[in-house]
Structure formats: structure tokens, C-alpha cells
Amino acid sequence: MEAKNEMAFTERFNYAKVAPGAYRAMSGLEHYLHESGLEESLLHLVKLRTSQINGCAYCIDMHWKDLKSIGVEDQRLYELNAWRETPFYSDRERAALAWTEAVTRVADTHVPDEIYEEVRQHFNEKELADLTLAVAAINAWNRLAISARTEPGTYQVSKMKLQKEA
Question: Which residues are within 8 A (CB) of 11 and not within 5 positions of it... i.e. 6 or more apart?
Fold first, then answer.
């Protein structure tokens, strides 16, 4: 077993402690998104896929655990980075994942019209606005966690969250 790279996993700072107002604002957006009507599994798939693209180990760990806690099958998690080549996702999820990738890579893609046309077949305007906010939020969380070097593997699904979903 390889030794842990202490330099890579030493937390630089904790946003919740040093910028609590900003952290509460971000958490408020998360609360809104989870009350928006978008499916919980869809939100976490979007967050997991964005985190894969951005290479955010902490958020990959978090959203993998969240998806497992709500009963998402292993196959759907293992194949997410190759979602286009697998039969494990609905048309709505595929549209959301294409939108997620385009918005996450906005500097390269400028979110093409053909992806917009595809996603509009599966999401109304409010849902698309909420989906876009979810992508924007996880991109922000990824940048916060990566820059702060938030340690992956430390996230635990809260008991309160599990009770709410039961």
C-alpha cells in the first residue's frame, strides 16, 4: 500500500470557519436546489459528473456516498464517466449530463444550441434554470474544495439526511 501524500491532503483552510457568511449563502443555494423539485438522484449525478470533470476528490467522494445512500445502483456510479456509451441512464439524465458537461466546460463549449435543444425536450424553463444553478453551484464547491485542499474520504452522510429520505 502506497503511503499517503501528506502535502497533497493537508487542508489549507476551512471555508465554513473563515468565511461563514459565504458558506451559509452557498448552503442556502443547496437547500433551494434540494427543494426545487429536481430528482435527488439527478442532482447528485450532475454533481458527481461535474466533480469528475474538475477532479475534485472530496466532492466525488461526497456525491458517490450520497448516491449510494439513496439506493443508486453501483453500475450507474461506476459507468458515469462513460455515460454516453452505456444503457444505464434515462433520456432525461442523458440530457442533464450533456448540459452539465457543456456548462462545466463553458470556456470551451459556450453551451451549444444543439445541447440546449436536447435538454429542453426533457426540462421545462424552471427545471433548466434549477439544473443550471446546480451545475454552477457544484463548480463553485469544487473550486472551493480543491483550493482549500479539503480532505477526501472525510465526508459522512448525515443521520438527519438519511432519516429525511427514509
Answer: 148, 149, 150, 151
- Could you give the 3-state DSSP secondary structure of residue 153? coil
Query: Which residues, 6 or more positions from 42, have their beta carbon under 8 angstroms from its beta carbon?
Result: 92, 93, 96
Residue with cell 501528506: 6
Enter the CATH code of domain 39-165.
1.20.1290.10
Number of H helices, E strands in the chain: 11, 0
Query: How many C-beta atoms surround the C-beta of residue 90 within 10 A?
Result: 11
Give CA–CA dist 26/134, Å, rounded. Answer: 11
Reported pTM: 0.89
Burial string for 130-154 (b: 16+ CB within 10 Å, else e) reads bbbbbbebbbebbebbbebbbebee
pLDDT tens for each residue of 35-82:
999 999 999 999 999 999 999 999 999 999 999 999 999 999 999 999
User: Is 8 in contact with 145 (CB distance < 8 Å)?
Assistant: no
Cell 463548480 locates to 139
Which cell numbers in the block locate residue 11?
A: 487542508
Separation of CA 94 from chain center: 15
